[in-house]
Write a structure and sequence with these properties.
The chain has five helices and five strands, in the order βαβαβαβαβα. By secondary structure, the protein is of the alpha/beta class. Strand 4, helix 4 and strand 5 form a beta-alpha-beta unit.
Length: about 130
Amino acid sequence: MQPIRILIVNNDNRLLAGLVTALEICPDIDPVGTATNGLEAMGLCQELDPDVVLMELMLPELDGISAIQGICRNQPHIQIITLSKFLEKDLIRKANQVGAAGHIRLGDSADSIAATIRDVYHRTPQKASSP
């Protein structure tokens, strides 16, 4: 079985590096890229075609809600999980309305983050695998 390919989007480079390091130890999760803003995330989704995107909501250049809308419109098979430091209920609700499938609070354990990724990935229809 192929690992779950994830793109992590956050404008804090230290946090990005920490998430990548934490998730690289999971044999079934493959962090394939990182982005620091919504525009970069949309471009990398086109280029890398990840299975799951971990998306911060408060981003420069293009906010997370707008990026989620664009990704869901252009690549509806990509599942999106929101990331936030605080429980921003209104933003999370809005993200869910435009297509986010889950939420991770920054500060959750690596095991909890990995479990959420697996849950969202496995409860959604998978794209056809390449020959």
